[in-house]
C-alpha cells in the first residue's frame, strides 16, 4: 500500500483498535503458482500489547499458504466509502474514496494444539457473547470429542508483524469545515450514506490540533 505522510497511521493503539473493530481479514501469500488469498477472522493476541495477531486457517489452506514457512500479508480493512466532489463546495474537485486500512506482514508462528484451542475458544466467545443465548465452544450439544475434531481440521498461528503499513485517509488534508460537511452528508439519507465512515471521520477530526 502506497503511503502518504498526511494519511499515515503510526499509533499502535489506533492500529490495535482498527484490528479489534474489523476482525475479518484477508490473508495473502505468494506460492509456486502465484498469489494466494484467503479470508479469516483474526484477533489481537491478548497476551501482548503490540500488533501481534492470532488466527487459524482451515486445512488445506495452511499448505496452500505454506503457513509458517514464508511471509504472510494480513490486510485489515476498516470503514470506507465514496466521497462526492460536490461535497467540497463550489471548487474544482474530483471524486475520492476514504478508507482506513492496515497491512501487517511477517512469517507466522504455528500454534500447538492447546494454544490453538484457546484461540478458537476466544474466537467463538468474541462473536457469541452478544447473542441472547450464546453457544460456547465447549458447551452442549458440543462435547470434547467434537471440539478436538474441530481443532484437528484447523491450523492456528500467531503473526508478530515485521512490517506494518497503516493508512487513514479521511480528508485530513481538507479544512475542518469541509470535513464537517462531508460527515454530515455521509450521515444524511442518500445513495452514499455511510454512518460508519462518518463516525470514523468525526473521530479523526476531533483528534486534529485545530479541532
UniProtKB/TrEMBL annotation:
Protein name: FMN-binding negative transcriptional regulator
Pfam families per record: FMN_bind_2
Amino acid at each position: 500500500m502506497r503511503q502518504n505522510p498526511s494519511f499515515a497511521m503510526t499509533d499502535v493503539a489506533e492500529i490495535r483498535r482498527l484490528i479489534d473493530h474489523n476482525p475479518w481479514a484477508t490473508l495473502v501469500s505468494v506460492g509456486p503458482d502465484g498469489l494466494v488469498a484467503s479470508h479469516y477472522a483474526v484477533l489481537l493476541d491478548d497476551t501482548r500489547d503490540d500488533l501481534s495477531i492470532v488466527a487459524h486457517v482451515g486445512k488445506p489452506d495452511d499448505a496452500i499458504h505454506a503457513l509458517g514457512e514464508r511471509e504472510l500479508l494480513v490486510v485489515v480493512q476498516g470503514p470506507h466509502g465514496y466521497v462526492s466532489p460536490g461535497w467540497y463546495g463550489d471548487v474544482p474537485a474530483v471524486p475520492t474514496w476514504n478508507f482506513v486500512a492496515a497491512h501487517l506482514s511477517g512469517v507466522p508462528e504455528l500454534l500447538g494444539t492447546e494454544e490453538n484451542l484457546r484461540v478458537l475458544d476466544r474466537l467463538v466467545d468474541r462473536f457469541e457473547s452478544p447473542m441472547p443465548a450464546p453457544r460456547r465452544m465447549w458447551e452442549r450439544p458440543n462435547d470434547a470429542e467434537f471440539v478436538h475434531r474441530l481443532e484437528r481440521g484447523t491450523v492456528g498461528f500467531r503473526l508478530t508483524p515485521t512490517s506494518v503499513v497503516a493508512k487513514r485517509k479521511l480528508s485530513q488534508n481538507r479544512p475542518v469545515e469541509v470535513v464537517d460537511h462531508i460527515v454530515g452528508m455521509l450521515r444524511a439519507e442518500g445513495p452514499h450514506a455511510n454512518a460508519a465512515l462518518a463516525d470514523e471521520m468525526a473521530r479523526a477530526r476531533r483528534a486534529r490540533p485545530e479541532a
